[in-house]
Amino acid sequence: MNWFLTRRRYILLVVLAALLLGASGCSGSGKPTSWTGITIVGERMYVADLEQARALNTEDSEPLWAFPKNPKEDGRGNFYVTPAVDEERVIVASQVPPSGFLGQPKNIVWALEADTGRELWRFDEAKGQYVEGGALGGGLFIIGNSDGNVYALDVERGELKWSFETGHRVWATPLIVEDTVYVGSMDHHLYALNLSNGGVQWDFQADGAFAGTPALSEGVLYIGAFDDKLHAVDAASGSELWSFSGKNWFWGGPVVYSDTVYAADVNGNVYAVDTTGHQVWYKALDVQVRAGPVLSEDGSELFIGSQDGILYALDTADGFKLWSVENKGQMLAPVVVDGETVYGTLIQGTYRILALHVDNGREIWTYPPVVEEE
Length: 374
Hints:
Blueprint: H1 3-25, E1 39-41, E2 44-48, E3 53-57, E4 63-67, E5 78-85, E6 89-96, E7 106-113, E8 119-123, E9 135-137, E10 140-144, E11 149-154, E12 160-165, E13 175-177, E14 180-184, E15 189-194, E16 200-205, E17 215-217, E18 220-224, E19 229-234, E20 240-245, E21 255-257, E22 260-264, E23 269-274, E24 279-284, E25 294-295, E26 301-305, E27 311-315, E28 321-325, E29 336-338, E30 341-345, E31 353-357, E32 363-367
């Protein structure tokens, strides 16, 4: 790799990281924004928009509750990361700014009652910022942190059950399958950890960092890395089965449908690769993409949000663009598809959440609603 290419990629990482972390930490901005992902359970949507964690009605975006109720009077920090939700609780994270010149920010995991938003417990022992959300499984909440650790918390009380130290920051959301936690680190390793105690079952090393969540299908993990490659790894042993070379870093996680893996690199190159590692089709969108692609429920459409606020819908058969919608702001988190509706979040725009029809991209609602000037 020549010096110019190495320098270009380093600069791109710095810019993307600054954008990502800056969006979640600039509480002094003129209006609250959101880069967090969305979690939908039934007819409820759970999000975090810096000032508050919220529950909204998916049909019309009607607010159901917010935590804290009065953020200016009861500041709990800047809320971000995709909420993890079960029947009883919503788990989010925030960063509380330092109180003095020599003070340090506090990074807090909050468990809130799903029906009311009431605080159930908090965990504040991590030293770094939480960049992505966590996962629930086996009575535990598992989340990575920028201090290099993976933390396992008891979902009932928030007590630390175990932690696992990697060699660098952990920005990726873990994947929990039965008794195993799969999580990537910026130390170039993908780890398989025992869910009950954090013991290492295996680790796979690539030539670049892992920032996305792997997709599992038929015993194979598919995950992209900052080495410009999409890797297929045996989930039982950690052995690499094949790798596919893209044109730039893979940041967001891939998705799998039937016998095809779909992934997008940070330059907006979208790939469809079969499960033997051979390219099926390729589409260049010529935009910056951080989040991974998302499939419609029938697998016929692939949705990709870009840093310039455009949401694309591609035909999974050949990559043909079915429709695209331009928005003010930036789409940095994966969209969520629920039935015939696709939901997305934006930062630095006129609204923070939008709901669109899957088949044509027509707007259903935005939150907050856009008020037309007379």
